[in-house]
Amino acid sequence: MVGLIHARPRPHRVAVIGDVHSNVFALAAVLREVGRSEVREVWLCGDAFGYYPWASATFRALLRAQPLAVLGNHDRWVLRADLAPANLAGGVARHNARELRRGAPSAFGWLAGLAPRRSFERSGWAISLAHGTPTDPFNGRYYPDDHAGYGWLPRPGQIVILGQTHHPLVRGEAASGLVLNPGSVGQPRDGDPGASWALLDLGSGRAHLRRTSYDHARVMARLAKLGWDEGLISALGRRERASHRDR
User: Fold this and answer.
1) Separation of alpha carbons 156 and 177, rounded Å
2) What is the pTM of this model?
3) Among 19, 43, 57, 134, which is disulfide-ready with 24 (CB 3.0 to 4.6 Å)?
């Protein structure tokens, strides 16, 4: 009797990305690595846009990845220019909006369909996805050195995924309660210029931070030719840990 050969079940891995900020070169490098990682889904915890000029190309790359996404504060400024602040970040959001109107107008419909937070279930785990925090999705911040006992922190069987800070964080695991911030694809602030993201294994309930190198020096040179803001250019090559006050 010939024994049956059973295919090995495909692991349920999720690539968690966030804070792309229109840096399509970093995003493309991450998505290439994601494609080699047996990933079933991509989740985006907000701020696809802002800070850098390549909004249309970023949107087209995200469309190919088809992420489950939430709306970030910079995304909201792109969608609603009247809400954008009168500062550099608001000015770049308005620049992104103009560029999207010319090159990828369907991005506005995509943004308009995004909620600021999402709750859903995967593999028996309760997932909460927000850009800031579950109670303040646009402006909340939860840094790696924050150990306050917030009411939204996960209980056993729950996974809370956040963005906003540009500082990667894995605290706990799903069985006991997991907090995950994948860090920033487009503008890391933890002293490593490599694009930051996370691989979430829903089988084990554990998350692992990943770093993807890309030619950030070449991107900085492109921005300089465009006359982009020097602070935003230098942020891409920053080797020291940025202050938590940086926004």
Assistant:
1) 5
2) 0.93
3) 57
What's the fold here for domain 13-235?
A: Purple Acid Phosphatase; chain A, domain 2 (3.60.21)
DSSP lists the bridge partners of residue 161 as 129, 180
Neighbours of 16 (CB within 10 A): 27
CB atoms within 10 A of CB 180: 30
Nearest-Å Rg of the Cα atoms of the chain is 18
Q: How many residues does the chain have?
A: 247
Q: Any idea where the domains of the chain sit in the sequence?
A: 13-235
Confidence (pLDDT) at 164: 98
State how far the alpha carbon of 106 is from the alpha carbons of 16, 27, 76, 231, in Å. Answer: 23, 19, 15, 30
Encode pLDDT of 65-76 as tens digits: 999 999 999 999
What's phi and psi for 212, nearest 5 deg?
-120, 120
SS3 8: coil
191 contacts 239 by C-beta, under 8 angstroms: yes
Mean of pLDDT values over 191-196: 97
Assign 145 to helix, strand or coil.
coil
Distance between the two ends of the chain, CA-based, in angstroms? 66
Give the pLDDT score at 238: 84
The amino acid at residue 50 is G
